[in-house]
Design goal:
- By secondary structure, this protein is mainly α.
- It contains 10 helices and 2 strands.
- A two-stranded antiparallel ribbon has the order 1-2.
Length: about 200
Amino acid sequence: MADGKARTIQHMMVTSFWHPDGTPMSAQQFLEMLFGKLPEFFKNESELRGLWCAPSTRAKLLKGLAEKGFGTLQMMEMQRIINAEKSDLFDVLAHVAYALPTMTRDERATQARTGIRSQFSAKQQTFIDFVLAHYVNEGVQELDQEKLTPLLRLKYDDSISDAVADLGKPEEIGIFFAGFQKYLYQDAPPTTFSA
């Protein structure tokens, strides 16, 4: 890539991507085009993390990418090509833009639990753990603000009043639902080894 860092793609995959003008392109061409467009959306890794950790700004970023020809289906295919199917779409963007190693959604959820445990009540943690299980199994779309009510209904057997009794007023639930997500996208703490 132009930044001098390599990105590995699985060459044995035969995947066709389509240029916005309708012509077919290779996975390598798609990757190079994505790499070239990403600076229009965020200037550095910190800004990407900041945009991605809030459901509203993540949705705007994904919408903007889709408008430039990098929709959800293409990004999911890119996940497969870089061997990151169990990773978050954040990892695809960070890998393409900054050659960062990918993490699985399970690794992200496990890492986030430390911060979550210190910031949220036991009942909130139980609901967050439920949401994180869906995130690990299904993907980042489970963290969209529109998923909050369906997740509450699923967790509380279709009883929003039980959810409110456990977790607080709807606006408070919305705030902590959006708020816990920053812990998923924080920089990984440095690994220390003792001799």
